[in-house]
């Protein structure tokens, strides 16, 4: 697992490292990305990744599982909605 901050795309060297690392990735986990420049960069660079999961991020970033877009929900759990598990069953 590699961790990058949302401002690393601004450095050419860091961008190359990030793109190389993610070229062989199966999943991109996005946490708390709200800066619009970062959002645009992510949208441009990671269209081809089959699995993208976003938490506490811009609503313009979308979740993808197996290449299919998963609708963002205001409330509830992403995986619960996807796999039919309700919040009341988890308590």
Automatic annotation (TrEMBL):
<protein>
    <submittedName>
        <fullName>Uncharacterized protein</fullName>
    </submittedName>
</protein>
<dbReference type="GO" id="GO:0046422">
    <property type="term" value="F:violaxanthin de-epoxidase activity"/>
</dbReference>
<dbReference type="GO" id="GO:0010028">
    <property type="term" value="P:xanthophyll cycle"/>
</dbReference>
<dbReference type="InterPro" id="IPR044682">
    <property type="entry name" value="VDE"/>
</dbReference>
């Amino acid at each position: 697992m590699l961790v990058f901050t949302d401002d690393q795309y601004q450095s050419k060297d860091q961008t190359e490292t990030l793109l190389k690392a993610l070229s062989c990735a199966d999943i991109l986990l996005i946490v708390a990305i709200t800066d619009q420049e970062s959002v645009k960069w992510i949208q441009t660079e990671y269209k081809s990744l089959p699995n993208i999961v976003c938490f506490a991020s811009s609503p313009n970033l979308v979740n993808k599982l197996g290449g299919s877009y998963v609708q963002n929900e205001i409330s509830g759990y992403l995986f619960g909605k996807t796999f039919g598990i309700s919040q009341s069953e988890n308590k």
